[in-house]
Amino acid sequence: MTTTPVKFYQVGSFAVGNRLLTEEERSGQSNPDRANALTSGHRACQGCGEALGARYALDAAMRAANDQIIAVNATGCLEVFSTPYPESSWRIAWLHSLFGNAPAVATGVAAALKAQGRTDIRVVGQGGDGATVDIGFGALSGMFERNDDVLYICYDNEAYMNTGVQRSGATPPAARTATTQAVGEEPGNTFGQGKFLPRIAMAHEIPYVATATIADLRDLEAKVTRAMEFRGARYLHVLVPCPLGWGSASCDTIKIARLATQSGLFPVFEAVNGEVVASTKIRHKVDVEEYLKLQSRYAHLFSPTRREDVISHLRRMADKNIARYELMGE
Amino acid sequence: MLRQVEGSKAIADVVAACKPQVICAYPISPQTHIVEGLSQLVKNGTLTGCEFINVESEFSAMSVAIGSSATGARTYTATASQGLLYMVEAVYNASGLGLPIVMTVANRAIGAPINIWNDHSDSMSQRDSGWIQLYAENNQEATDLHIQAFRIAEEMSLPVMVCMDGFILTHAYEQVDIPEEPEVSKFLKPFVPRQVLDPAEPVSIGAMVGPETFLEVKYLAHQRMIDSLETIQEVGVEFESQFGRDSGGLLKSYKCDGAETIIIALGSIIGTLKDLVDEMQVQGHSIGLVGLTSFRPFPFDQLRQAVTGAKRVVVLEKALSTGVGGIVTADVRTSLRGTQIKDFTLIAGLGGRSITMKSLKEYVLRAMNDSVAELTFLDLDVNIVESELAKERALR
Fold first, then answer.
1. pLDDT class for A36, splitting at 50, 70, 90?
2. Do A101 and B71 make contact, defined as CB atoms within 8 angstroms?
3. Pairing with A262, which of A124, B103, B149, B388 sits 20 to 30 Å away (CA)?
C-alpha cells in the first residue's frame, strides 16, 4: 500500500496549522486553557523575540511540571518589561534578584524545595545572553558543575539590549553594537572572540543541553518538555532576534531566526550527558547574506563598499557549524 | 552543658541547633571552621533536613541564600573580609527583598595590603546595607546571638549579621554552653515567611520599582530597622528568661554609674576593657564602659541614657573611615547631640594589631584630662609614617 505524506511546506514556510495535526500533536498555545506563564500587556518592543521565546518555553515547562514551577529571572529586558511595579505579567511564582546571580538563586530555590520535600515543584532559571555568558557565567558554571536540579534558559539576542545594545560575549563577529562600532579596518565586533555557551555547558557533562530558536516554536516546546524529563542541571539556549538591537523590521523577527538556522550560522541540536545526540537539519539552505541583509547591524558589510572578505569569513563559520553538527540532511 | 570548644565549633553546633534548611558555604579565613563544622554535621546526620551547598564564590553564596530564603527555607551562611565584599551586591539585595537570612561575619581586615587578621572593616563597610548587625563580646555571646538572630530575622523579615572577631573569637577555645536543639526549637518559632515563592499562590518578587514608589519602599525598610530596636530588646529579654543569660539586647553598660569617662566599644575588646575599668576604678579613676551589641539599628536613645552624667566618651573603633576617622563615632555624636559630653575616637587593632592594656591605660589616663586629640591611632609608629609622608610630599 502506498501513502502520500501530508505536505506541510507547500508555501515554503514551516508554519503548520494546528488543524492539520492530530489533537495530541497540536500546540498548547492554541488551547484557551493553556498555561499562560507570561500574559499579554507587558512592555516588550514590537516583534520582541525574547518575549515570544519566554512565553513558549515557560508554558511548556508548566505543562511538563503540572503547573508546579518557580522561575528565577536575571536582570535584563525580560525582567524589566514584565515587572514594572505594581504590574506583573507573570502568572507563575517568579523571583528577580540581580543581573549576575540567577543560576545561583535558582540553586537556592531548588535546595529549599529539596529540604522541604517539595521536589514536585520544578525550578527554571532564565536570563539574556549578557546575564548568562558574561556576568552570570561563574554562577552558571557552578550550578552546572554541582548538577543542581535547575533548567536554565538563555534567551540569546546577542548583545546587551536592555542597556542600549552593547557587545556581549555572545555578540557575533562583524556585528555592530554601541560598543563595537562599524568603523575602522575591522568594523563591528572582532573575529575570534565570543563564546558559544551550549558547548561550554556540554563540557560540564550535564544531563541535557539544547539549542532552539523562535522560528521553530514546536521544537522549542519539545526541547523544554524533554529537558523537564531530566533531573539535574539542564541548559537551553534560545536564539531570539531583537528588532531594536539587530536593526530589523519587527515583522521579520521569526524570519530572521529561521534564516539564522537555514544559513548554518545558528546550529539547532540536542546533547545528552555532553554528547550531541540530534541536530535539526537545514531544509532550505540559504546563504549567510540573506540573513545578514535584513539586519542593519551588518549594513556596513554591504555599503558603502561590499566587504566580501568579512561575508566570506562569516560563511566559513556557518559551514563549520554545518559540518560540526551535521546540519545538512542525507 | 559547658563545653571547652573552639568558637567556630560552638557556632557550627548552635547554628545546627537552629535547624537551618539550607546552608551555603565558600571558604575564607577566618570563617572556614564554622562551615567545615556544619558540613560535617549535615553529612553525619546530626543536622537533618538541611541542604549544604558548596558554591563557587561568596557572590553565589549570598545568591543561593536569597533563592532559598525566598522559597521559605531557614537559611544560613558565613563569610569574612574580602568574601563579604565580594557578595556585597547580593547583601543589599537580600535586605531589599526582606529575606531573613542569618550570616556570621568572622571579622577580618580588608586588603590591600592583604591581611587575614581581625578588625571590623568588613562588617562596618556594610553599615548601610540594611542588615541588622550584632557584635559578640565572647564566644558564649556569639553562640547565644545566633539563636536570637534567627528569631529577630524571622520576626522582622530582615537579614541579620552576627559579627564575631576573627581568630580572637573564632579560633579561641573557651567554655561555652551550647543550647541543645529542643530548647532552641522552643525559643525559635516555626519560620513563617512574609512572602514566599509558591506555585499554589504565585507572586512576583523583585519587581522593578520606579521613582514614584522607590522612596516609600526605602522608608519602610528604614522604619522596619528602627522597629527592630524593640524586637532585639524583647528577644534578648525572652532569651534571658529561657536560658538564664543576658547575652542580647542593644548595649550593655559596665560600671558606668557616676563615671566621668565612658569608653564605648564593640566586640571582643570589651573583655580587655572590662579588666581595664576594674583596675582603674580600684585605683580611684572615674571610668565606665558601654559595649554596643547592636550597631545596626543604632540604639541612639539607649546610648544617650547609658552615658548620661559622663563628661566625655571615648569610642574605640576597629575600623577606619579613611580621611575621616571613626565610623561608630559619627553615630555616637548623633546620640549625644545637645549634650555637653565630649567625644574622642581611638582607632585600634587594625589588621590584628594587638591592643594592650598598657597602651590603652596610657591613652585613657590622658583622655581623662581631655589631653588627647579628637582622633588617635593607638600605638602608631610616628617615626615611620612621618618620614614616609615627608618623602611622598616632596615628590608631589
1. confident
2. no
3. A124
Q: Same structural domain for residues B216 and B351?
A: no
- DSSP secondary structure letter of residue A252: G
Q: What would the pLDDT profile of A81-119 be if each residue is shown by its tens digit?
A: 999 999 999 999 999 999 999 999 999 999 999 999 999
- Residues B207, B333, single domain; the answer is no
User: By the CB < 8 Å criterion, does A98 face chain B?
Assistant: yes
What is the C-alpha to C-alpha distance for residues B294 and B299, in angstroms, rounded to an integer? 7
- pTM for this predicted structure: 0.96
Domain enclosing residue B352, as ranges: 251-383
Best B57, B204, B205 residue to mutate vs chain A (most A CBs within 10 Å):
B204
Among the partner-chain residues A121, A139, A141, the one whose CB lies closest to the CB of B199 is: A121
Q: How confident is the model at residue A12 (pLDDT cuts 50, 70, 90)?
A: very low
- B84 plus B199 within the same structural domain: yes
Domain for residue B388, yes or no? no
Choosing from B211, B243, B275, the residue where a domain stops is B243
Same domain, B206 and B288: no
Q: Does B394 map to a domain?
A: no
Cell numbers of B86, please? 565580594
State how far the alpha carbon of B78 is from the alpha carbons of B69, B102, B160, B214, in Å.
Answer: 15, 8, 11, 30
CATH number at residue B353: 3.40.50.920
- pLDDT tens-digit profile of B22-45? 999 999 999 999 999 999 999 999
Residue A4 has pLDDT above 70, yes or no: no
- A96 contacts in chain B (CB < 8 Å): 204-208
Point out the domain boundary residue: B243, B278, B298.
Answer: B243
Instruction: Please tell me if residue A222 touches chain B, with a CB cutoff of 8 Å.
Output: no
pLDDT in tens, A214-272: 999 989 999 999 999 999 999 999 999 999 999 999 999 999 999 999 999 999 999 99
In chain A, the residue whose alpha carbon lies closest to the alpha carbon of B60 is A104
Question: In CATH terms, is domain A35-324 a member of 3.40.50.970?
Answer: yes
A105/B63 touch (CB, cutoff 8 Å), yes or no: yes
Q: Is B377 inside a domain boundary? A: yes
Residues B203, B272, single domain; the answer is: no
Q: How far is CA B88 from the centre of its chain?
A: 16
Q: How many C-beta atoms lie closer than 10 Å to residue A137's C-beta?
A: 17
H or E stretch including A269?
Answer: strand A269-272
Considering its fold, how many domains does chain B have in total? 2
Q: In this predicted model, what pLDDT tens digit does every residue of A154-178 receive, in sequence order? A: 999 999 999 999 999 999 999 999 9
Q: Residue A19's pLDDT band (boundaries 50, 70, 90)?
A: low
What is the complex's ipTM, to 2 decimals? 0.97
Of A188, A163, A291, nearest to A239 by C-alpha is: A291
Q: Which residue of B has its CA nearest to A89?
A: B204
- Ramachandran bin of B63, using left for φ above 0, alpha for ψ from -120 to 50, beta for the remaining angles: alpha
Query: Which CATH number goes with the domain that contains B61?
Result: 3.40.50.970
